[in-house]
Request: fold
Amino acid sequence: MSLRKDKTPAEVLAEYRDRQACTMMLVAQVAPETLREPGTIPWYGIEYSLDDFIAYAYYGHKREHSAKSPCSAIGSSVKRPAFCRLSNTKAPPVRPAR
Reply:
């Protein structure tokens, strides 16, 4: 937060969008099968796949912190589909074995 305290909301959003575009470009270079394969990032947990980590890092972690934000009151009034609701766990849910 302190890195962006002097930035406008528009500047922060532009930075976020730039990072998201870069991430999408990099992810596009990885085969979908590799993204879904458990154990590809053993340091995170042998049962997790790269897409589990990406989903947590880019959504779950921010969702956990947004619950502590003054904006969470606004966010709680937004109806989200069931698949967007995460529990407050440290890691994403384990995927069923394929």
